[in-house]
Design goal:
Strand 9, helix 6 and strand 10 form a beta-alpha-beta unit. Strands 3-4-5-6-9-10-11-12-13-14 form a 10-stranded mixed β-sheet. The chain has a two-stranded parallel sheet with strand order 1-2. Helix 5 packs across helix 6, helix 7 runs parallel beside helix 9 and helix 10 packs parallel to helix 11. The chain contains 11 helices and 16 strands. The protein folds into 2 domains: 59 residues, Orthogonal Bundle (DNA polymerase, domain 1), CATH 1.10.150.530; 312 residues, TIM Barrel (Alpha-Beta Barrel). The C terminus is likely disordered. By secondary structure, the protein is α/β, with parallel strands linked by helices. It is globular. The longest helix has 19 residues. It binds S-adenosyl-L-homocysteine. S-adenosyl-L-homocysteine (SAH) binds next to strand 10 and strand 12.
Length: 388
């Protein structure tokens, strides 16, 4: 249960339905009020308790004394030429994280962050260069979806939001499904923040919450194998795995968590996940790095790993950022790699790059992170453990 924070008020956004029912019961009120509250918060997008007009006036007054709906503050918004939007959100006075909205015909995907920075140190990822500061809370994770829905409704669905107390305007997040899909592919490793991500998933899927279908919520992991087994027990969302290499020698270099959990263990966890979840397939993300992991023989090696399994490969053209030593593979090389996979019987697609003019593409999210994972001792750097 999320504790009252700096404001002294409990943030209702961080509570799952059972937690909210317990909280409401603790105030001496009937638990069905929890559903009414969720209806206001998630279906109608109302964040002001005093405006939740079908709740008894006394109850509203009592609740407003101890609780609120609190979302991260927006520090900046950038809109790409292709319609992609990137928001920078405040984690605290000195740090920020990012979320990205990608509109496509017939659907809209919100890419959210789970941590301020990331501790996993993948060699080609810009977030990794920033280091790690802290896990986002459940309320900060859910708050991204709530905020984006409201912002998009205001931007796309009819003028600026009227914030005056008299306003009867109701903003309905997810009405018309401006956000149809949510992907945990922003900053951070979601499975390293298991404790806060699991309740966030439950609020995203809850009929009384965002009511998203489990196939439209995707968690992407770099391969924290023990947490993948736990995830199979506790949540049922689509799974994406950042593979990026067809063998351990190369993956150890690109995705260092591989040294702890090599490819064979990772794949076993993937197939277990599908068995437990009745999932259709696992999406394997594979970033295309010029001259590093993009040869036809590496494609054939990948085929040998995945053929015969329920797997899809999503090839991601590398998105460069200042200071990186990698280059994007030429399009012809990427297409050849894809064709080699398909010839070998493995489904493969090429991810279209979106929002790269505003640094909103995969792996370009940077935010503002004060690294506290590494302690420098003379010329030695010691990494601290990732907290979950
Ligand atoms: N930590 C999670 C989710 C975040 S990243 C994970 O690793 O899966 C989402 C995807 O973008 C991952 O597959 C990641 O490896 C990829 N990515 C990271 N940096 C990239 C870059 N510079 N260009 C293209 N893709 C990148």
């Amino acid at each position: 249960m999320s504790a009252p924070t700096a404001t002294g008020l409990t943030n209702l956004l961080g509570l799952t339905r059972p937690q909210l029912e317990e909280y409401i019961a603790g105030l001496g009120s009937k638990s069905f009020r929890a559903r009414q509250l969720m209806n206001w918060i998630y279906k109608r997008g109302e964040g002001r308790i005093t405006q939740m007009t079908d709740l008894a006036k006394d109850f509203r007054a009592q609740l407003a004394q101890c609780a609120q709906v609190r979302v991260p503050r927006i520090c900046a918004l950038q809109v790409s030429a292709d319609g992609t939007r990137k928001w920078k959100l405040e984690a605290d006075a000195s740090q920020a994280f990012e979320m990205v909205y990608i509109p496509e015909p017939g659907r809209g995907t919100l890419c959210i962050s789970s941590q301020v920075g990331c501790a996993l140190d993948c060699s080609f990822c810009s977030t990794a260069q920033q280091g790690f500061n802290r896990n986002l809370t459940t309320a900060e994770i859910v708050g991204q979806v709530w905020l984006a829905a409201r912002e998009l409704e205001a931007a796309v669905g009819g003028g600026p939001e009227d914030d005056s107390e008299e306003s009867a305007q109701v903003i309905t997040p997810l009405s018309g499904r401006i956000i149809s899909n949510v992907v945990f592919m922003g900053m951070g490793e979601p499975l390293a923040n298991f404790r806060n991500v699991i309740p966030a998933l439950s609020i995203l899927l809850d009929d009384f919450g965002f009511d998203l279908s489990r196939r439209r919520v995707t968690l992407s992991t770099s391969g924290l194998v023990p947490q993948m087994y736990k995830l199979a027990e506790e949540a049922n969302v689509a799974l994406a795995v950042s593979l990026h290499a067809p063998n351990d020698a190369l993956r150890n270099e690109l995705v260092p968590i591989n040294r702890k959990h090599p490819i064979s263990e990772l794949l076993a966890a993937c197939w277990h996940y599908l068995d437990e979840q009745n999932g259709r397939s696992v999406t394997f993300e594979y970033v295309m790095l010029d001259g590093v992991n993009d040869s036809p023989s590496q494609a054939r090696e990948l085929v040998r790993l995945l053929r015969g399994h329920p797997a899809k490969v999503n090839l991601i053209p590398f998105n460069p950022y200042p200071g990186t030593r990698y280059r994007r593979s030429p399009l012809a090389t990427i297409q050849r790699f894809r064709d080699e996979l398909i010839r070998g019987g493995v489904l493969a697609t090429i991810r279209r790059t979106r929002g790269d003019d505003i640094d909103a593409a995969c792996g370009q999210l940077a935010g503002r992170v004060i690294d506290r994972t590494t302690v420098r001792l003379g010329n030695k750097t010691i990494g601290l453990a990732v907290q979950s």
